[in-house]
Design brief:
globular, Endonuclease I-creI, single chain, about 50% helix
């Protein structure tokens, strides 16, 4: 488990650049809508970059499910971060983000409604989470339309 108190401001700013360029913020339900899940993903052809992300915040690294088709068919790798750690990352990078600020802001807002087990209980929290998930999806879609 990473020691979050030792993450430097320069590392947070660097991670914001990675998230703006290669990252994705995500929030959705799992287990038939019974639990709320927040996630962060970064994809890259550079596993060293992803291992650096993992060293700072934890999570897991591996090959992306889709085979790489860029840069001469190099493999594409992925770093995944879920739950509280994803919320911590979003909170850390929020002041430095330029492009994906709205997605991170919505993820942080939804994070504030999560109980320890992630269960959806309070109807107000459920509506807020659903709204935050829509904001994230809409902004992620906007990013894809401009690609």
């Amino acid at each position: 488990m990473p020691n979050y108190t030792k993450i430097k401001e320069t590392d947070k700013a660097y991670m914001a650049g990675i998230m703006d360029g290669e990252g994705t913020f995500n929030a959705h339900t799992v287990n038939g809508g019974k639990q709320w899940c927040i996630q962060v993903h970064v994809t890259s052809v550079d596993m060293v970059l992803l291992e650096h992300c993992k060293a700072l915040y934890g999570g897991s690294t591996g090959r992306a499910r889709r085979p790489g088709t860029n840069l001469g068919n190099l493999p594409i790798f992925r770093w995944d971060l879920c739950g509280e750690a994803a919320g911590k990352l979003a909170l850390d990078v929020l002041p430095y983000l330029k492009i994906k600020h709205k997605q991170a802001e919505a993820l942080v807002e939804s994070r504030n409604t999560i109980t320890l087990n992630g269960k959806r209980t309070d109807p107000i929290d459920m509506r807020l989470r659903d709204f935050c998930a829509r904001v994230i999806r809409q902004n992620n879609q906007r990013m894809l339309q401009h690609a």
